[in-house]
Amino acid sequence: MEALTLLNNVYGAMHPEIAQCLRMLARLSYIMGDYGEAMAYQQKAVFMSERVNGIDHPYTITEYIHLALYCYANNQITTALKLLYRARYLAVLICGENHPEIALLDSNISLILHAVQEYDLSLRFLEKALALNIKFYGPKSLKVAVSYHLVARTQSCMGDFRSALSNERETYAIYKQQFGEKHEKTQESSDCLKHLTHQAVVLQKKMNEIYTGKTGATLPPIQIHPPSMGSVLDMLNVINGILYVQISQQDLENFKAEVEKRSETLDLAKPSTEQECTS
Asked: Is the Cytoplasm keyword given for this protein (predicted)?
């Protein structure tokens, strides 16, 4: 807030740096859990960037993406989708379809479509994002691993477990190579593979019974867990680079002790420095 006040005093009411400062305030409010205040700050950042940078400026497109995230966090799903579609349209005009920013936008759009159970359209955006991420970051990138997982999750919701298994295996292979078998991400992917395998086996077994003409054989209900707002928001945070670091109370105490120790060391060093200057 102090920085915002200083920028207003120096530059006046409208300036590109003030828009960036408002974006940072919005991000801080979001991380602190105040989604309403985050959206209010980000709306100001959008309005200012539109006026000082222009509607088709890359900074303005970035502001739209941030505002869409905060709108979704405030349950304004339709508004979030409109903002992302607008940002994508402008980004395509500026840099074309083949650009890393398009991959980010497509991932954001697909996740919100997934949240409202528009799986077919969501999958189309995800497959486009996956192809772009492979092209720009390489087949073993963590971004590619996340894209494979999102594709697999959407395909499982559509009942296409064979394709979902294939894509989730790609995610598991990347995590295993990058982090090792014991890492949390690798374990999560392994659990997902087990669930998809079980679903695929049950479905195939029932399909075989139907083909052989077994009486009373019917397709089993597909165990699809509708996406929750919280789970989708967590994935939106991941792809937009918002990571929450969990710090224990003990770690905080250790950090405070280290700061106090360094402060005392500096205080002890000051008198000797002053004596040297005097002599």
From this structure: yes
Question: Are 136 and 238 contained in the same domain?
Answer: yes
Owning domain of residue 191: 119-226+234-245
Q: Which burial class, exposed, middle or buried, applies to 265 when counting CB atoms under 10 A from its CB (0-12, 13-18, 19+)?
A: exposed
In terms of residues, how long is the chain?
279
The answer to whether residue 15 is domain-embedded is yes
What SS3 class is residue 1? coil
Specify whether 147 is located in the same domain as 32. no
Q: Is 263 within the bounds of a domain?
A: no
Alpha carbon 64 to chain centroid, angstroms: 15
Q: How far apart are CA 231 and CA 52, in angstroms?
A: 36
Cβ atoms < 10 Å from Cβ of 60:
21
Same domain, residue pair 89 and 163: no
User: Is residue 252 in some structural domain?
Assistant: no
Q: Are residues 163 and 64 in the same domain?
A: no
Judgement on whether residues 74 and 148 belong to the same structural domain of the protein: no
CA angle 68, 69, 75 (to 5 degrees): 90
Q: What's the rounded Cα separation, in Å, for the pair 151 and 95?
A: 25
Per-residue pLDDT of the chain (279 residues; tens, 9 = 90+): 778 888 878 878 888 899 999 999 999 899 888 999 999 999 999 999 999 999 999 999 999 999 999 999 999 999 999 999 999 999 999 999 999 999 999 999 999 999 998 999 999 999 999 999 999 999 999 999 999 999 999 998 888 888 999 999 999 999 999 999 889 999 999 998 888 888 777 766 766 766 676 655 555 555 556 677 888 888 999 899 887 766 667 776 776 778 788 777 766 665 554 455 555
pTM: 0.81
